[in-house]
From TrEMBL:
This is GAF domain-containing protein. It comes from Micromonospora orduensis. It comes from the Bacteria. Keywords: Coiled coil. SUPFAM superfamilies: GAF domain-like. Residues 326-360 form a coiled coil. InterPro entries: GAF, GAF-like_dom_sf.
Amino acid sequence: MTAVSGQQPTAPDPAVTRQGAEEDLRALFGQSTALFASLAGPAHLVETANPTFFASIGEERARTGVALADLMPELAGQDFVALLDQVYRTGEPDTGRDVRVVLGSGPYTRETFFDFTCEPRRDAVGNVIGIRLLGVETTQVKHAQRLMVEHRALLEQIARQAPLTEVLDGMASCIENLAPREVLVSVLLADPDGRHLRHGAAPSLPDFYNKAIDGIATGEGVGSCGTAAHRREPVIVTDIATDPFWNDFRDLASQAGLGACWSTPILARDGGLLGTFAMYHRTPRVPQDADLALIRVFAGTAALAIERHHIEQAKASAEARAKSAHDDLARAVRAERELRAEAEQRAAAAAELAARVRAAAAAQAAAPHPERCQLGGPAGCPAPAEIKIADSWGDSAWGCPTHVEEAILNVRSVFIANEELGGLAAYLNR
């Protein structure tokens, strides 16, 4: 205030000064992305707050002149209230980093995080009359950090070739834990022909529901997933109860307590269908940008896991075929060796029998029809000589039926000779 000549300067009114400062703060933070609230008394009465504050706690609760505990009853017993009480009691400012605050109740409960600075408000004599709250919501940053950690863990699982079911179950559970509101995740895998979808992972959906949709066809109007697989593009159904895509599955979804389903096709690098990635909600719901980003990230991760699984399957199948071919070749080689050995044995036996026939032919000069078999080898054969055999060279011998059969099977060009005709003549005139 500028003094006027002849007058004494007037001391500023503390109440007016304080009010002006509060108006300056309201003007400063009115359009800010940082939240601001001015609280009064030990009950933390909300005197004023900017739109960002009410956006964080819920637009439906945009009221002033209400105690914070009445405006947000879910804060009872939480660390945030204890922080405010401490600042009011001690008069010392405090700062909280990544303070966890659970907002809402029942199905609308959501976990949030804030960086807060709490400063005491004082009257003209220095007594604490309230708290000035400045803060920034860090929920998305916190979730992004969690997402990076979980996503890295999934990529490590894929890299170490963990079973596909383990990777997909882990991914589904990860998303369900990261989502700010309750979500139920499902992954369906495409058959090789791309015409049907099979159960892949859905840890939180009822078993009866998973069994019912296992094997559903891909096609226009076949729920969210069948349609997404058919179109090769995301299909967002915000209200299952009224959407025509769910005409054939509406009762099933009602039994499972499902109100919305957002499905995205999982595509290979060449555009082929690998499956679908779906996020279910208990109540009708429209996706936010953060939801769509989460879907894109994990649909890509699922594609990587499924493609890796297919590659490993193809590799294992090729290795199995190679091993089978190797085993078949080994068996063929063994069989060939056995046949060769058998042939060599037969050749040796044939040579020995041929020698017996020649020896018998020479012996027939003294005894044209011997009494005993001449084909028994060095040990001889006591059986009667009943049948005469001959070869194409004219050599002949007498033997028993057993040794004659052995000679016919093993010695080339041996045949049964008439007793009246000998050797070559019997062969030529048979």
